[in-house]
Specification:
Length: 337
């Protein structure tokens, strides 16, 4: 037998629809220092610490996933910056052979002090969530957040070289749908990427989300009516749900994440690891695969690897929102987006 055929091909994560799953989103905690109205109730109860993966458990699982071909990792939450030892976690993730892209989604509140250490530890890029440029509205949407602090965090991230800097804006009817033009206008002077996200329904917040959803088409029409046509930016990553556009003469880009009205499931390459150690196969489906329990029962890495491989194979094709199938078991803050 020729040498090249003697070894089986390295196992990688391919689902039954042939999608290669190389992008892992890790929720580092379900806790948060804000309470955005569409994300969680004001009186939110967070998980006890003993339910969350320790750093050692997290790295055991991540090493297996990286070995199976995950090469792109995003840290999220809750709010990832409230996880103890975050900078050290980033340093260790960035050092894993095979990880070529390490990013984070954050509300930005703690970035004034963390942006620089995170960049030095090896974080490549960052997404900051800002739904409005009006401090009073920002406070209303986040329930107590200060826009000034987030803005300082955004400037700190840019100064630290975390580029391209992306801003996530969830568009919510009667809260910030009248602000999309002002947000889009930021791209004229700055190299930022603004991404408008359709509101998604989860558990106890689902009724609100369904009544307040604004379609990307409506958002786009509003922007174009005020600022002129959006031109597609060529050469974008086909796995990125936000197809990029640019206003004439703009420095930055504008994208639309249309999960509800134009699902992008065919190009989905994502797996999610929740803070309590569940592999979630689709953002908008409740099906999860428990990894932490067998890990705590002492399962070895080889078995863990086989189980993760088998679970990933059964990633569902797409979400069931059109047929009224709304995720009930977790809120967005317990998954991370
Ligand atoms: N705390 C971090 C933040 O706010 O960026 C990371 C976690 S947060 C759950 C990730 C993203 O999900 C944020 O951009 C947030 O605005 C968005 N998000 C939260 N709830 C949502 C919902 N119901 N529908 C759509 N996006 C949502
Ligand atoms: Fe916290 Fe982010 Fe959810 Fe806002 S969107 S409550 S910042 S987890």
């Amino acid at each position: 037998m020729p040498e090249s055929l003697s070894q089986p091909p390295a196992l990688s994560l391919i689902d039954r629809f042939g999608r290669r799953l190389n992008y892992l989103r890790i929720s580092l905690t379900d806790a948060c220092n804000l309470r955005c109205i569409y994300c969680m109730p004001e009186q939110m109860t967070f998980m006890p610490r003993s339910h969350l993966m320790t750093d050692a458990e997290l790295f055991t699982v991540v090493r297996v996933l990286v070995d199976l071909g995950v090469d792109k990792i995003r840290l999220t939450g809750g709010e990832p910056t409230v996880r103890p030892q975050l900078v050290e976690i980033v340093r260790r993730l960035a050092a894993l052979p095979g990880v070529r892209d390490l990013s984070m989604t954050t509300n930005g509140l703690l970035l004034p002090q963390l942006a620089e250490p995170l960049a030095r530890a090896g974080l490549d890029r960052i997404n900051i969530s800002i739904d409005t440029l009006d401090p009073a509205k920002f406070k209303r949407i986040t329930r107590w957040g200060k826009l000034d602090t987030v803005w300082a965090g955004l400037e700190a991230a840019e100064a630290a070289g975390l580029r391209p800097l992306k801003i996530n804006a969830v568009v919510t009817r009667d809260f910030n749908d009248d602000e999309v033009v002002d947000l889009a206008r930021l791209t004229l002077q700055r190299e930022w990427h603004i991404r408008f996200i359709e509101l998604m329904p989860f558990g106890s917040e689902a009724d609100f989300a369904q009544s307040a959803v604004v379609s990307s088409t409506e958002t786009r029409q509003r922007i174009e009516a005020a600022l002129g046509p959006l031109q597609p930016v060529p050469g974008h990553d086909l796995h990125d749900p936000a197809r990029p556009y640019r206003l004439a003469g703009a420095q930055g880009q504008i994208g639309f994440i249309s999960t509800i009205t134009e699902p992008f499931c065919a190009g989905c390459n994502r797996l999610r690891l929740t803070a309590d150690g569940k592999l979630r196969l689709c953002l908008l489906r409740d099906g999860e695969f428990d990894i932490l329990t067998p890990l705590r029962q002492g399962v070895d890495s080889a078995t863990l690897r086989q189980r993760i491989h088998a679970a990933a194979y059964h990633k569902p094709w797409g979400h069931g929102l059109p047929s009224g199938d709304i995720p009930q078991l977790r809120l967005m803050s317990q998954i991370g987006g």
